[in-house]
Amino acid sequence: MWSLCARLLYKRRSINFWIHNKEIKIDMSKQNGNQFEEFEQVDQALVEGERFVEKHLNKILIAVGAVVLLGLAVYAYVKFYQEPRAEKAYASLYVSENNFILGNDSLAIAGEGVASKGLRQVADEYSGTSAASVAHVYAGIALYEEGKYEEAIAELKEFEGDDVYVASSAVRLIGDCYVQLGKLEEALSAYKKAGDMASNPAITPSCLLKAGRVCEKLGKKDEAITLYEEIKNEYYTAPEANTVEADLLRAKALK
């Protein structure tokens, strides 16, 4: 509509109006010529826009349809596959979790045959679920208790989740595994990482304390002192602060 009006206005340079029975003629050619140029530019833009839509209409419709279908597919995947699968995963984890809590580590890891799935089986069959991540951590702890440190590390590294407490605790236990394996540099790195991840008085002080003691074994006395002083000054309400003074004195004496 606007395109048609613009053309007419541009082509007709005079317009007659009747007001109170008097004819008033407006000579449009005397109006500002820039106005007609603006109309022509608007008209051209509209025409080009119409041509673009006509030319690419099928592509536009296909793209819109694809987005809608993708949204429906994601909803269906979550609603009819992911959520039921997560429920099955937690149901499968129930018995092995109880065995883990009761200290029956071997049963927890291997399961009880047909009666229940072990932690590793749950983690494998339901990978990608939060239950699988929990199963990996349980399995890692149980394997650590059995002295299978390499296997424990492999399980603990599989944890994926947003829970900072669980994630940092898992990394701290990886540090414990490295200490048992005599890999002190790897242990130090794990303890520091766990402390940074946690960044809270419940977990960080223990990570700093373990890191400090590893530093002493590695001959890094100054770093050990720095870590102990951090516990003393920044986490003075933590239980570790009550004993860190002895560690601090020992490290200073060995300098």
Question: Could you explain the architecture of this structure?
Answer:
73% of the residues lie in helices and 5% in strands. With 255 residues, it is mostly helical. It has a domain at 185-255: Serine Threonine Protein Phosphatase 5, Tetratricopeptide repeat (Alpha Horseshoe), CATH 1.25.40. The radius of gyration is 36 Å and the shape is flat. 32% of the residues are buried.
Could you give the distance between the termini? 90 Å
Number of helices: 11
Which structural class matches the secondary elements? mainly alpha
What CATH architecture of the domain at 185-255 would you give?
Alpha Horseshoe
CATH topology of the domain at 185-255: Serine Threonine Protein Phosphatase 5, Tetratricopeptide repeat
General form = flat
Helix content: over 70%
Largest sheet: 2 strands, antiparallel
Q: How are the strands ordered across the major sheet?
A: 1-2
Name the beta content range.
under 5%
Q: Using DSSP, what is the number of strands? A: 2
Calculate the mean pLDDT score and round it.
80
The CATH C-level name of the domain at 185-255 is: Mainly Alpha
Query: Helix-strand pattern, N to C?
Result: HEEHHHHHHHHHH
